């Protein structure tokens, strides 16, 4: 194989195989240098690629130049935890049919910040704790009050949220799911809260957190809510559900709600990337403009079509 063909297999692993480099001819002593991490063996690099590949949402080679055994590529890629596309130049050196050296050059400040943030499962756990604390404040008529979800009472939002967490856990466990179970109205009208709303929510949250904490789940891919959804994305979706529906219920029942700042920041970053500003319906209305000095939670709610 010539140098360009070998490098094509390398980039196909990133674009089409979630970073699985098992079919890429990396030299055993492959050396990679980059602004975030460097490696001195193919084994170490393959391990990193499998982990990072689970978070890659889009990848393309924009330009490519070949000079003998050197291939220089300009690449764009998107990751679940980042708000914008990253662009980099990468130089790969090929010798005797194997890639022996790689150098990646780009501004990694956004990625460093994302990597320094609390792990996604820890963020989900914090979000669930804040929402459970809020649910404990709802009494009497508060459950029957109209929520910020049009047409649903506070209790219906709670039913939907618990039902959604149970479904997300089943998706992550690869349990069989009837498409009819994904209907939001069905989950809202099913009594998931029972006589102990807080306990029911905490039980569903604990099961989901345990599932995401199992080895390898965050790196796997699933067909719900769409083909190729990673476990990392499922965990981010779960946190978004808990955080925003927590606000929907708190606002309707008129009780305080104080989500963790790190959860709000991470969820806003995810939402801006995952939920476009194109015309939309269902759970997300048209974007509500906010002022430049709006706090992160207000900005998140505005992006999702909610008036804080």
Could you describe the 3D structure shown?
This protein has 308 residues and is α+β, with helices and mostly antiparallel strands. The protein folds into two domains: 110 residues, Nuclear Transport Factor 2, Chain: A (Roll); 187 residues, dinb family like domain (Four Helix Bundle (Hemerythrin (Met), subunit A)). 45% of the residues lie in helices and 17% in strands. It is built from ten helices and seven strands. The chain has a five-stranded mixed beta sheet, covered by helices on one side. The chain has a two-stranded antiparallel ribbon with strand order 6-7. A hairpin with a 6-residue loop joins strand 3 and strand 4. The longest helix has 23 residues. The chain is elongated and about 75 Å long. The model has no long low-confidence stretch (mean pLDDT 91).
């Amino acid at each position: 194989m010539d140098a360009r063909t070998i490098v094509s297999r390398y980039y196909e692993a990133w674009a089409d195989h979630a970073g699985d480099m098992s079919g890429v001819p990396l030299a055993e002593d492959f050396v990679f240098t980059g602004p975030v991490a460097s490696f001195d063996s193919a084994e170490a690099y393959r391990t990193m690629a499998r982990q990072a590949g689970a978070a890659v949402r889009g990848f393309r080679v924009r330009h490519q130049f070949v000079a003998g055994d050197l291939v220089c590529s300009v690449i764009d890629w998107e990751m679940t935890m980042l708000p914008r596309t990253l662009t980099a130049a990468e130089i790969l050196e090929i010798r005797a049919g194997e890639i022996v050296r790689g150098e990646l050059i780009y501004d990694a400040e956004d990625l460093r910040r994302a990597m320094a943030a609390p792990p996604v499962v820890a963020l989900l756990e914090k979000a669930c704790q804040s929402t459970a604390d809020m649910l404990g404040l709802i009494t009497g008529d508060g459950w029957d009050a109209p929520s910020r979800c049009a047409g649903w009472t506070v209790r219906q939002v709670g039913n939907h949220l618990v039902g959604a967490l149970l479904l997300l856990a089943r998706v992550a466990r690869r349990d069989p799911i009837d498409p009819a179970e994904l209907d939001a109205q069905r989950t809202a009208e099913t009594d998931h809260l029972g006589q102990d709303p807080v306990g029911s929510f905490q039980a569903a949250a604990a099961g989901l957190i345990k599932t995401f904490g199992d080895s390898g789940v965050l790196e796997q891919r699933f067909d719900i809510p769409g083909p190729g959804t990673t476990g990392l994305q499922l965990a981010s979706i779960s946190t978004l559900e808990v955080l925003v529906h927590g606000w929907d219920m708190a606002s309707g029942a008129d009780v305080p709600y104080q989500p963790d700042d790190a959860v709000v920041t991470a969820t806003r970053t995810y939402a801006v990337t995952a939920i476009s500003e194109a015309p939309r319906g269902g759970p997300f209305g048209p974007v509500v403009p906010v002022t430049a000095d709006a706090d992160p939670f207000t900005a998140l709610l505005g992006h999702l079509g909610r008036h804080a």
